[in-house]
Amino acid sequence: DSVFSNVDRAPEDPILGVTVAYNNDPSPSKLNLGVGAYRTEVVSSAYLLSIFVEGKPLVLDVVRRAEQQLVNDPSRVKEYIPIAGLADFNKLSAKLILGADSPAIQESRVATIQCLSGTGSLRVGAEFLKKHYHQSVIFIPKPTWGNHPKVFNLAGLSVEYYRYYDPATRGLDFQGLLEDLGAAPSGAIVLLHACAHNPTGVDPTPEQWEQIRQLIRSKSLLPFFDSAYQGFASGSLDTDAHSVRTFVADGGECLIAQSYAKNMGLYGERVGALSIVCKSADVASKVESQVKLVVRPMYSSPPIHGASIVATILKSSDMYNDWTIELKGMADRIISMRQQLFEALQAKGTPGDWSHIIKQIGMFTFTGLNKEQVAFMTKEYHIYMTSDGRISMAGLSTKTVPHLVDAIHAAVT
Ligand code: PLP
């Protein structure tokens, strides 16, 4: 008998499990709108090619070029990189999220550490807070990305929720948000999605962000930004960093977890950064020294390849420029899918108000479809999505919109 015979089978991850179920479905018309990963559109002018390029993962052109450059550089070796990661990568990542002219960077008050994508950045930040910050309560939005409570709980923080989404309006429950953060204990940590809130696609307006900022600062709450979609939401890196930058412009402190999974399409390379904006250069350097003590026993030091790609692109004004164009192309395709889906539902006369599809932003639409309707669409139409009715717009294409519309129509009528 195995010494592990008492181990129970764990459930599939609620998000990644959707892909497992999709892979097991033999239907030729199946459609995976579960996981948040970008897929290409059909190239209509290249008819024969289209069967190869439709709905496929995309490696950005600029990423290929950066990799080529790295491969051709004989001086590159595979030595360990420092615990904190590549220095260039860290500097450029802080600049990307905070802005080139950020006083916090000029005053050397930002500690940035290369981490394992967004998830790893959140986890390292949370462990640092547990060890060195006086409050261990973190408020996260309801709902939020399913991994948030698990990451924070495992790091030893205690998780509480603040109201965020109003199912009645399919928009922001701004009053509820202000009330809940207003009632949070002084010093509590607040997790904020920098843009393109997952799963709802609902972001505060700039005016609402300003009110949130004032409340957070007046109550001395500590903002922890999750920036997984910079540039991917609006198509502009600066617009999508607006929320973070207003919190840094006021001189206060905050943490930021950055991911290059979506905006550079580097999902599996696991490249991201944790930045901790402090009041002084002296504090920032001490903070950095302690974050390294979190990393060392966890995974020693981060991987070299993904961060080298990012640094190569961010360093070269040519490549940077090409990246912004490709990024905008991805964002625009998603925005256009929203429009197409909305118009197709209207054309079909599907009952209900679907305007939230074009009001929401980012990778996901929170359709408002319930668990039973989702199960129906999976069973009858082989369409896969998370049970909360979230669909990844990036998994949709002009060709698959009609199939999705038929399924939604049948599910709600
Ligand atoms: N945060 C949010 C809100 C996300 O949606 C995701 C990815 O889906 C992540 C963080 C982390 O992604 P990764 O660890 O792949 O960068």
Automatic annotation (TrEMBL):
Requisite cofactors: pyridoxal 5'-phosphate
This protein's record includes keyword 4Fe-4S: no
SUPFAM superfamilies linked: PLP-dependent transferases
Pfam family, one: Aminotran_1_2
Domain Aminotransferase class I/classII large, first and last residues per copy: 56-408
Family designation: Belongs to the class-I pyridoxal-phosphate-dependent aminotransferase family.
Further remarks about this protein from its record: In eukaryotes there are cytoplasmic, mitochondrial and chloroplastic isozymes.
Protein name: Aspartate aminotransferase
Organism encoding this protein: Brassica napus
